[in-house]
Write a structure and sequence with these properties.
Helix content is 91%, strand content 0%. By secondary structure, it is mostly helical. Helix 1 (3-28) runs antiparallel to helix 2 (30-45).
């Protein structure tokens, strides 16, 4: 139960930084970006 707010706050902060990080990752390693998106989706499902 205590993990829900933590995951929400983590995903929110992560998405904010992903806007900048995602651009760099897309240029160099699209596979890594896909992996990050998958991790975010799995975290949101929890």
């Amino acid at each position: 139960m205590g993990a829900a707010p933590f995951v929400m706050g983590w995903s929110g902060a992560r998405q904010a930084s992903l806007s900048a990080e995602g651009r760099a990752l897309r240029r160099h390693l699209p596979a890594v970006r896909g992996r990050v998106v998958t991790l975010l989706r799995s975290a949101v499902r929890r």
